[in-house]
Design brief:
The protein is α/β, with parallel strands linked by helices. The chain contains twelve helices and ten strands. It folds into two domains: 168 residues, NAD(P)-binding Rossmann-like Domain (Rossmann fold, 3-Layer(aba) Sandwich); 130 residues, N-(1-d-carboxylethyl)-l-norvaline Dehydrogenase, domain 2, CATH 1.10.1040.10. Strands 1, 2, 3, 4, 5, 6, 7, 8, 9 and 10 form a ten-stranded mixed beta sheet that branches. β7, α4 and β8 form a beta-alpha-beta unit. The longest helix is centred in the middle third of the chain and has 22 residues. The protein starts with a strand and ends in a 7-residue tail after the last helix. The C terminus is likely disordered.
Length: 308
């Protein structure tokens, strides 16, 4: 299968690399420094079970999606519509687009600008870009994708590439479950630059996280979303399965980059306000990250932040 990864950051590189290693024709579309490294040496896929250079194509041009049967859409939430429009002229009429993004409404927003089928996916993986052309995998890796006539075939391709994948009729609930996890961990990990395991063992954090989870569940219930499973137990399990992982928000702040906090705690805040539900802990965490973003962008303008 010919596959394009639009937004070749840590998530896109991990899944693209696993699919390429399984024999699929994959092109990564990302930033110049990263693309140049992959073009020169292939992708260095540094996982918990193996390390390998995986040869594949790479480009900075959105037009590289041309001819792809499947597009893994992995850009930041704020860039969803503009990136969708950039790649739209190059997509085939039968191209399937899979949104592997944080937040709960990206697939819907992307579908609004594309005639091709867009499927939501829930991503459970701990990864980071350890340098240009080097993705480091810290744990997990499974996917949950939405239903469609082609979903079973896509899930089979991922599963054959050692990426456990299931198709769910309640992908909205699964997306909300992931949103709750992100709201509980990301801001706290970001503000203190602390991995999940250490964060969970810090006095007072558990109670704050429980409050976040309860606020999110109240908003989801008011919206009629059925979140599967024991969400609080799942939240605690994250720290046990990914103890060394820094949140994506923490990684963004460390690099002086804008985060996706507006689509995580900020999304819950906006929905809570619209529904007349108080979400004070999500409000505080959202504000704390926005303050850190402002501080980081100011330092970056003065040349005080070095970027790897």
């Amino acid at each position: 299968m010919k596959i394009a990864v639009m937004g070749a950051g840590a998530v896109g590189c991990y899944y693209g690399g696993m699919l390429a290693r399984a024999g699929h024709e994959v092109v990564l579309i990302g930033r110049p420094q990263h693309v140049q490294a992959v073009q020169r040496d292939g992708l260095w896929l540094d996982t918990r079970s193996f390390q390998a250079h995986v040869p594949m194509q790479a480009s900075t041009d959105p037009g590289a999606v041309h001819g792809a049967e499947l597009v893994l859409f992995c850009v930041k939430s704020a860039d969803t519509e503009i990136t969708g429009r950039d790649m739209a002229p190059f997509l085939g009429t039968d191209t399937l687009v899979l949104s592997l993004q944080n937040g709960v409404d990206n697939a819907e927003r992307l579908q609004a600008v594309l005639p091709q089928t867009v499927l939501p996916a829930v991503v459970y993986v701990a990864t980071e870009m350890a340098g240009p052309g080097h993705v480091r995998h810290h744990g997990r890796g499974e996917l949950v994708i939405g239903p469609s006539p082609r979903s079973a075939a896509v899930a089979a391709a991922f599963s054959a590439a050692a990426v456990p994948t299931q198709v769910s009729d309640n992908v909205a609930g699964a997306l909300w479950a992931k949103l709750v996890m992100n709201c509980a961990y990301n801001a706290l990990s970001a503000v203190h630059q602390m991995p999940y395991g250490e964060l969970m063992n810090t006095p007072g954090v558990l109670a704050v996280m429980r409050d976040v989870v309860q606020e999110c569940l109240a908003v989801a219930q008011a919206k009629g979303v059925a979140i599967p499973g024991d969400v609080w137990e799942a939240a605690q399990q994250i720290a046990r399965t990914m103890p060394t992982q820094l949140s994506s928000t923490a990684q963004d702040l460390a690099r002086g980059k804008p985060s996706e906090i507006d689509y995580l705690n900020g999304y819950v805040l906006r929905q809570g306000e619209a529904l007349g539900l108080p979400v004070p802990v999500n409000r505080v965490l959202h504000t704390m990250v926005k303050l850190q973003e402002s501080k980081g962008s100011g330092q970056a303008r003065q040349g005080l932040i070095s970027r790897p």
